[in-house]
Design a protein that fits this description.
Blueprint lengths: L4 H20 L3 H23 L13 H6 L1
Helix pairs in contact: 1-2
Length: 70
Amino acid sequence: SSVSLRMYAVTVAGFSLWIAYGVLSRAWPVVGANVVCLILSATILALKWRFAQGKPLVPAGMSEGARDVL
């Protein structure tokens, strides 16, 4: 709950803009570093978004008993 969904959305957008800047200016170390940071931040954002309600999403084919465990 201490990880802000909005903050990570802004962070992902920022890393994306830095990647675009690096590509346009052909600064490959900037691109490489920000791609790594983007992947990590996007993973945290996706997990935060998925588990924002407190329970994970349940796959459609999962049985009723298995849904109760989640």
